[in-house]
Amino acid sequence: MKLFWIPFLVLGTLFATAQTNVDLTSPLPEDPAVSKGTLDNGMTYYVRANSEPENRAELMLVLKAGSVDEDDDQQGLAHFCEHMAFNGTKNFPKHELINYFESIGMEFGPEINAYTSFDETVYMLKVPLDQPEYMEKGLQVLYDWACQIDDSDEEVNAERGIILEEERMGRGASDRMMKEWLPVFLKDSKYADRLPIGKVDIIENCAPETLRRFRHDWYRPDLQAVIVVGDFDQNEMVAKVKEKFSAIPASTNPRDKKYFGIPGHKETLVSISTDKEARYPIAYVYYKHDLEKSKTLGDYRHSMLVSLYTSMINNRLAEKTQQADPPFLMGQSAYSHQFGPLNTYMSVAVTQGDKIETGLKEVLLENERVKKFGFTETELERQKTAVLNNMEKAYNERNNTKSINYANEYMRNFLITEEPFPGMENEYAYYKELIPGISVEEVNELAKEWITKDNRVVIVTAPENEKTIVPTEEQVKSLLDEVESIEVEPYVDAVANVPLIADEPIGSKVTGEQALEKVDAVEWKLANGATVVVKKTDFKDDEILFNAWSLGGTSVYPKEDDVSANLATDVMTESGIARFDEITLNKMLSDKVFGLNPYISDLREGFNGSSSVKDVETLLQMLYLYFTEPRFDDVSYQSLMKQYATVLENKSASPEANFRDTLNVVLSNYNERSKPMSVERLKEASLPQIEMIGKDRFKDAADFKFFFVGNIDFATLKPLVEKYIGGIPTLNRNEKWVDLGIRKPEGVVEKVVHKGQEEKGMQYIVFHGDFEYNGQNQAQLDAVGKILSTRLLEVIREDKSGVYSIGAYPSSSKFPEPEYTMAISYGMSPDKKQELETAVFDIIKEYTENGPTEEELNKAKEKMLREREIQLRENRFWMNILSNTYYLKNGDFSEYGTFEQLVQNLTVDSTKKAFADYFNFKNYVSVALAPAE
User: What does the CA dihedral 889, 895, 900, 906 come to, rounded to 10 degrees?
Assistant: First the structure.
């Protein structure tokens, strides 16, 4: 598992300055739509009916125990227990649990999973509801996980290798440096030596009884919650949950559950860690505070102050990255829950190698500026509007909330933060009532509460090389003192109060309209030649997705322009638009809920975007300006070049980066147009070329197809489309992409990259070849990938304990020439490279000779059909259908709607033939990563 700093809802003291009719001392209610209770045995339950997605339910078993509860001889066994839950229970011996759920279309990973952290262990299922039996089985699995896991000696010993491979895959520069600084950050706390992955010698050698002791002590109903959210009758489900889980016996003489603190300290603690494989420096300053829980409406209001503060200071820090020579690549500050009983105010700077002190100083100076002068009224009012608009969008979407979002919310309520769940109706009402009364003075007080000399920790991680200037502990402490003595100036909030578009566009009308009946969409042809495709859906009440593209991309330029072409849209977006730089633009549009991003790929250029229903006009205005007044600012260009150079400077030190670059170069057969980016290549870019390419790619409406999917009112959207898309100039270029001749190498190509100090290997095997591009072959290729992935997990992971994760990943493309790829990837011990590769090939050869069993094929087909069930209720899926059908089939939807039949057409014989066709052992690429020699 990976360690993440995850912000939760953090709440603090109550300010008495609010002007409101609401009683801020009143306790926060719990959403009445949720059935929550505690059984006689101590188990907590949460049940909620919810129909998004239809015909599915999210099930969780949450355990209020994790690695911090381990005894000294159990380090790693909380996580080990989690693994064992999938290896045999009373009602699902051995691996029958995974086999059963895969037989009804569920997939290990996305729909059957679990995780372990310091304070909790969580098990998750996403169950289809076609048959009552499926839910019964799902509840039975939760029951078994709660109290009936086998933990047999045989299975414990078999699982050791898998967990050791998971630990191996987590090794690297970040992990090594974290193990140096974490004990400093968590000084004198049990958390400091309880990383969830644990200790290798314990994982390898612990007696099975030691693991069973952890489960006996902590897997008990008073520390557990069962969460069930989905498309069912709520009252019936509550009755089922009560009946089933009440049968778990209450613990007798339970072990005392301790909650471990993280001691404070007066002095500033400093940890400086370097590593030869680190990519770039990062400097953190943490101010540690006790966890505060939300109990009253006043606490909830305080969380609004936290949110406003965080957004405003991060807006200021983002502005600093717009400088020609920015002090840092990224700077952020936030107040959040870390883990256990700890909240922190954290400031972080990702810097250039020679600017660690500069970057850290600039972030801290912004803290001082807020501490001394606070935020301005205009900053606060702008952020209030943005927060209310985002909350309004969430409120509008309340009936389309995914079940997993509710389940996660109830999980957090049960765990240590005890996050409240008053319900969206209440939350929206609170925001509308309370946000207007929040004053800039009370937001400004937060800095004084959070930024203290007590409980302060500074962490610096950096590459170990000649170019990186790493400060000493004394220099860091001196810098902290210096920052407090510097006379900072108040922040000046420059705001442009002018319209986004100076001159209203002269649009053009829809001159042709065609119904696309197969997909329930409509195509409009505008007088300026633009093609617009619109599909109205009811999946989201306040979402409109946007996509546009035309043919050409970087392929229409000579190779000496490759770098400029690849950077063109980055410079465009960083420069702002028309008369406005990026800083001014962000302030002008802070109250809008939308996003729009241009791109240029090898064969196409275009846009991806989305908006709330009411802000679709702003999206279209920005689109119009990208075509008519794109901005290419020298300061933004210089800033980006500095940032890219920093990221690329130490790229070669990373084993994983070397591996990926080698893989991509080999797969392109060393084509000059596929060279990896480097500091030297970056010098090939020029702002004049970038500007020429950016303007050239986005200047002809007739060459573009534009797509809208979502809660669309045609009467509202049509005149906006006519005005803004219809106002884009027309050249009628009708461009095509250019085939650059980039092809995968013929024959067998094997390469090993020797890089890195860890005994850690990776393997990527890519089979490829010509492909007859059609729906039936795509379905067949997908089925082959699913069948092979399942078998690889069974044999290479479970039977051989050789890997933590492994899979087969199919893909196909039509342009520039139709081809398929089947990539198999996994991490492993370097000394097992040949053994595992041979085992993988043996599995494939068995399928080419005998084909899959009927059961294996049915599992794959069921998974494909289940996936499609969910996709049909997603705006993103329909956007892909519309856009890709125009790209790949010139807008011919005649074959749409045949997916289920294509899947049912698959047979054991056709799949056997596909294995033989798609796995040519005379034509594949194998690239492996091994330690440095």
Answer: -80
Distance of CA 484 to the CA centre of its chain: 37
What is the chain's alpha carbon radius of gyration, rounded to the nearest angstrom?
Answer: 29
User: Could you tell me the two tokens for 809?
Assistant: 């990943």
Question: What's the pLDDT tens digit per position in 205-232?
Answer: 999 999 999 999 999 999 999 999 999 9
| pLDDT of res. 20 | 52
Tell whether omega for the bond before 221 is within 30 degrees of 0, i.e. cis: no
Rounded distance between C-alpha atoms, residue 930 and residue 161, angstroms: 19
The answer to whether residues 724 and 546 touch, using CB atoms and an 8 Å cutoff, is: no
Handedness of CA 586, 588, 591, 595 (dihedral sign): negative
User: Closest by alpha carbon to 12, among 299, 323, 268, 362?
Assistant: 299
CB 64 within 8 A of CB 259: no
Q: Which amino acid is at 362?
A: E
Specify whether the CB–CB gap between 254 and 220 falls below 8 A.
yes
Backbone angles phi, psi at 231, to 5 degrees: -90, 75
Q: Which token pair is 571?
A: 């410079």
Q: Please name the amino acid found at residue 873.
A: R
**Bridge partner residues of 320 (DSSP):** none
- CA 912 remoteness from chain centre: 36
For residue 120, count CB atoms less than 10 angstroms from its CB and return exposed for 0-12, middle for 13-18, buried for 19 or more: buried
* Pairing of the two strands 456-463 and 342-350: unpaired
Give the count of beta carbons closer than 10 Å to the beta carbon of residue 21.
6
Domains of the chain by range and CATH?
Answer: 41-245 (3.30.830.10), 269-397+411-485 (3.30.830.10), 510-724 (3.30.830.10), 748-930 (3.30.830.10)
Place of tokens 């150079």: 645
Residue that has been written with the tokens 């489309």 in this structure: 721
Q: Which DSSP letter does residue 6 get?
A: -
| Model confidence pTM above 0.85 | yes
Query: Where would I find the beta strands (DSSP E) of 86-237?
Result: 112-116, 121-128, 224-230
Burial string for 716-725 (b: 16+ CB within 10 Å, else e) reads ebbebbbbbb
| Nearest by Cα to 446 from 384, 367, 342, 338 | 367
Task: For residue 296, list its beta bridge partners.
Answer: 27
Say if strands 604-611 and 748-754 run parallel, antiparallel, or are unpaired: unpaired
Apex CA 301: angle with CA 300 and CA 303, to 5°?
A: 65
Closest CA to 699 of 595, 582, 605, 570: 605
Q: Which two tokens stand for residue 192?
A: 């400091």
> How would you classify the pairing of strands 269-275 and 748-754?
unpaired
- Average pLDDT over the chain reads 95
pLDDT digits (tens, 9 = 90+) for 325-346: 999 999 999 999 998 999 999 9
Q: Helix, strand or coil for residue 894?
A: coil
pLDDT in tens, 111-130: 999 999 999 999 999 999 99
Pair 253, 222: CB distance under 8 Å: no
- Which H or E run includes 333? strand 330-339
- What separation in angstroms does the CA of 22 have from each of 32, 86, 385? 20, 49, 21
DSSP code, position 89: B
In this model, does residue 13 exceed pLDDT 50? no
Segments in 374-518 forming alpha helices (H): 377-396, 403-414, 424-434, 440-450, 473-485
Alpha carbon distance 511, 517 (integer Å): 19
Q: Please name the residues in contact with 829: beta carbons below 8 A apart, sequence gap of 6 or more.
A: 165, 168, 759, 760, 761, 802
The DSSP symbol for 518 reads G
In the block, which residue shows the tokens 């009927």? 854
Strands (DSSP E) contained in 10-129 are 35-38, 44-49, 56-63, 112-116, 121-128
